[in-house]
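Deliverable D5.2: sample structural annotation.
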Amino acid sequence: MLKISLSFDPEFEPSAKDPLGDLKFCDDRGQILVRDTYLDTWFAALTDACRRLLSVNRVVRELGEPGDLIIEKLPDGRLRLNFGDQSGSVESLSDFGAEVNRATDLFLGTLRSFPDFDETYFPRMLKSITEWKYGDE
């Protein structure tokens, strides 16, 4: 079962406007670890991938990192995730969507606790994360 965990960079003041940190995708077969990245960019990409995988079998996202995030539907219904030389898998799109929803809720809840969070300051990227959840289609 896929588990997405996140941590904000402890070397910087927590910031809702520039949320830097690490992401980790773990399953029984592998893990993907992304360090020192903009978490909002990743959550926007994951949300978009969930939406697009409803109608296509492969999503490629450039994230300004070394390598693209590639998510593919396999013939048995599983999803394969690749980022650079790291890979992982998920049992199904519904499992992936549920975990993206859970991790996104955690991310947004944490952002709301930061001193610089302001409901009126919602960059377009964050808005796309909050306006759609897997299962809403």
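Annotation notes: Strands lie at 3-8, 20-26, 31-38, 58-62, 68-73, 79-83, 86-90. The mean pLDDT is 89.
The annotation will be released with the project's public dataset once the embargo ends.
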